[in-house]
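Worked example
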Amino acid sequence: LVSLDMAPDAFDDRYEGCGAAMAAALPALHQLESRQSSLYARSWAKARAEWRSWGSLLTPLNPDQATALTALGLRDLYEAFNEAVSTAGRSRQEYRDKFRFKALHFLVTQALGRLREARGARCLLVNLDLCGVRYVVWPGNTVRFGFFLLAPWTLTRATCPGKSTRLQVYTCHSGDFHLHLQHLNKEVVLIPPFETFKVHTVTEAGDETRILLMHEGTLNNYNCEWLRGDSTGDSTGD
């Protein structure tokens, strides 16, 4: 059983008002984290090669943003990155000292913003089957995932031998794009950790739980944290 709540420990920076300053700090930060994490360095190199092999299809993204989204298609990096994102917001110290994906987090967040702007105000309905997972959640609750959830644009019905969850998510702050990798070539949707949802319905059907989440707004407890002094901010919106 997994509790679906407001993910209070997630690192949820949106970099509002500091995109240019973060972009200026990015080269040094990327080099530092490439030295700190062989997984990040290997995944970045592979994703950059993949992106270059099929050209810049992820417009209106710049090469670094496109590479960052491509890298999330690599399972090892996706899992390690999201595990870190889900806990790096415990404290400012946790983020600054232990979070090894500051550059990737910034690039993915900026990429989602650009994709959303290009799409306009249109929201998306995403369906996702999760095998072996049962969420604990109640209708009327406000929740967020607290990590970057990558979901297929078109649902492929999973055959789950045991307990499972089918999520229907009406999302307005996600980005949709075509993910090209040697083992993967499909349309996907990426939902950010700061988007909040109202739990509309929860139904049980045998071993399957069906949950409908409707977009409610956004919540980020951090903003421009890498560039800040000794204080943190809190920002909410829709």
About this structure: Residues 230-235 have pLDDT under 50 and may be disordered.
